[in-house]
Fold each of these.
Amino acid sequence: MADPLFDSPETFADEAPQPADTTMAMVVYALLLAGFVVGITPIVGVIIAYVYRGKGPPWLDGHYRYQIRTFWIGLLYAIVAALLSLIGIGLILMLGLAIWLIVRCVKGFKGLQEKRAPSNIETWLW
């Protein structure tokens, strides 16, 4: 006996592919930027990125990977800049780090609006 649920072509005719939900990826970018004001928010953001990684289309997963890399690379740059502040150049490097983070987050926001992965996910720069 045939199952009418699976034999009827009109059963799934009304279902359109669901667009990817970019809300959490936007929240993570915002949390990374909010780290300028409240220092703990990037940690919350990277945890969210780890949780949501692998649960969306490949282009959205690229954003989560980009965010995770931004957090860890930024942390490394911040440690180096803090150590070098002892000899005076760390403050200039901190300014460079701030610009680097803003550029990466703006690129990420733009990619989310265009529904595509950020370019050069593997890069250590922009």
Amino acid sequence: MTQQDFSSIRSMADVTPELMTKFSEGTFTDLIGLKFTELTADRVAAEWVVTPQQFQPAGIVNGGVYCTVIETLASVAATAWLDGKGTVVGVNNNTDFLRAVREGKLRAEATPIHRGRSQQLWVVVITDERDRTVARGQVRLQNLANPT
């Protein structure tokens, strides 16, 4: 799927988690193995398996991986909520790293805190297989209207 294929989608309601995962092929989120599992205007969820390629030198998942997942889920969720009325760009990503991870499957879930005319604020929580919070982030996004 190309950028042009994605831009031809009229409504984010037509985008399934599988289609979003396919659209991400060849991107950094594909490189880390991120797979979308839920995609609605109110919640976006995804998961991935930890691999050594995601590690920093101490042998734990690099914080940049968490920041990427958090920014990605918040952006997809914010775009789904706008539903074709425009696009979004991240203006702030604040991520807290709470637990070191060396292996297993991680899950992330984005939910809204605020969705307004000009900006949105989403929280994303990443958990491990035992439902322990590994990282938590907030992303503020600017809503950009489609050109007329």
